[in-house]
């Protein structure tokens, strides 16, 4: 069934739905919250840092909160510090950063950040995270008292079959197999299916616990 679905648009549609539902904001963000995951450097971590830096440039008045569990005594050697450095070297001033290093999951990170932010009922938050986590993250922050929460999903950019099959000189490579888009999409969509199933289990668990 999963293989059959991987040849359809359903996995991407579900992936896109998780990354865009409830993601809109009413106001410009006061805080840009970067949810850490996957270590640094990693595909997820680097993508989140890229989107965080671009958002910070678009909203120069917003503070940037990096949320990733870290022992304070090892902060300078931590993934949290690596994320800070990656965003900072992309042009975001270091004075804008705040760090939430105690939360160990989305729920506890939301609770910790709600304690850091003054007047949380009036503050606007932009959550930067992977597409499958946007829906649950926004709901978790709303649950702890934030009323204006949106999300930016760190969607990757598609690579076309034409760009995969052309050499440095721009000429098409004749010795490469065809149908690369179909083959790569199949494997990507299978990965999407696994990520989506995991996330829906997490959403169900959070609903049972009353966290969203």
How are the elements arranged and paired?
Elements: H1 2-5, H2 10-20, E1 31-35, H3 43-58, E2 63-67, H4 79-88, E3 97-100, H5 106-116, E4 124-129, H6 134-143, E5 148-153, H7 161-164, H8 180-209
Parallel strand pairs: 1-2, 1-4, 2-3, 4-5
Helix pairs in contact: 2-8, 3-4, 5-6
User: What's the CATH superfamily of the domain at 23-156, by name?
Assistant: HUPs
Order of helices and strands: HHEHEHEHEHEHH
How much helix is in the residues? 40-55%
CATH architectural group of the domain at 23-156: 3-Layer(aba) Sandwich
Spatial order of the strands in the main sheet? 3-2-1-4-5
Compute the number of strand runs: 5
Description:
The structure is a single chain. The chain is of the alpha/beta class and about 210 residues long. It has a domain at about 25-155: Rossmann fold (3-Layer(aba) Sandwich), CATH 3.40.50.620. It is built from eight helices and five strands; from the N terminus they run ααβαβαβαβαβαα. The chain has helices at about 1-5, 10-20, 45-60, 80-90, 105-115, 135-145, 160-165, 180-210; strands at about 30-35, 65, 95-100, 125-130, 150-155. The chain has a five-stranded parallel sheet, with helices on both faces. Helix 3 packs across helix 4. The longest helix is centred in the C-terminal third of the chain and has 30 residues, at about 180-210. The two termini are about 30 Å apart.
């Amino acid at each position: 069934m999963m293989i059959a679905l991987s040849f359809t648009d359903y996995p991407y549609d579900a992936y896109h739905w998780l990354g865009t539902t409830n993601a809109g904001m009413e106001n410009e963000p006061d805080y840009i919250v970067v949810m850490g995951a996957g270590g640094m450097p990693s595909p997820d971590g680097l993508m989140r840092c890229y989107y965080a830096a671009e958002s910070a440039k678009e909203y120069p008045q917003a503070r940037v909160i990096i949320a990733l569990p870290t022992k304070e005594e090892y902060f300078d050697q931590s993934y949290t510090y690596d994320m800070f450095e990656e965003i900072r070297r992309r042009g975001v001033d270091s004075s804008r950063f705040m760090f939430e290093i105690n939360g160990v999951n989305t729920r506890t990170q939301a609770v910790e950040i709600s304690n850091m932010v003054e007047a949380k009922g009036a503050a606007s938050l932009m959550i930067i995270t992977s597409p499958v986590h946007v829906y649950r993250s926004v709901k978790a922050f709303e649950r702890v008292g934030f009323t204006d929460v949106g999300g930016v999903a760190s969607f990757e950019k598609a690579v076309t079959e034409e760009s995969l099959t052309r050499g440095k000189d721009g000429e098409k490579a004749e010795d490469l197999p065809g149908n690369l888009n179909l083959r790569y999409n199949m494997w990507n969509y299978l990965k999407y299916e696994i990520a989506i199933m995991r996330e829906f289990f997490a959403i169900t668990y959070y609903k049972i616990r009353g966290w969203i």
